[in-house]
Design brief:
95 residues, mainly alpha, two-stranded antiparallel ribbon, 1 helix, 2 strands, 84% helix, binds zinc ion
Length: 95
Amino acid sequence: MTFVCNTCGKKYKFQSGLSKHKKKHKVQKEISVTDLIINFKNQILAMEEVRVLREEEHESVLSKIAKSWTEEKKYIEELEEENFKLKEKIRKYES
Ligand SMILES: [Zn+2]
């Protein structure tokens, strides 16, 4: 009678040989689970990196908005000043 490993199909004459061999598969399985966890962790780290990059992108977009807002504000102030001067002129003509 032969004992066949149902994981890889390897044949053994004795039950003890097969059970010894099966332990090897168990270790391999544990290793692959560890690999899976490491792989998963790496994926999360990669995702974190992407997220950080996205945050930096947000920062640059925000700073652009802030810059254009400052320019807009300056323009509005200039217009207000001009408006004030024009109003003064009108007042002079009225009086
Ligand atoms: Zn096997």
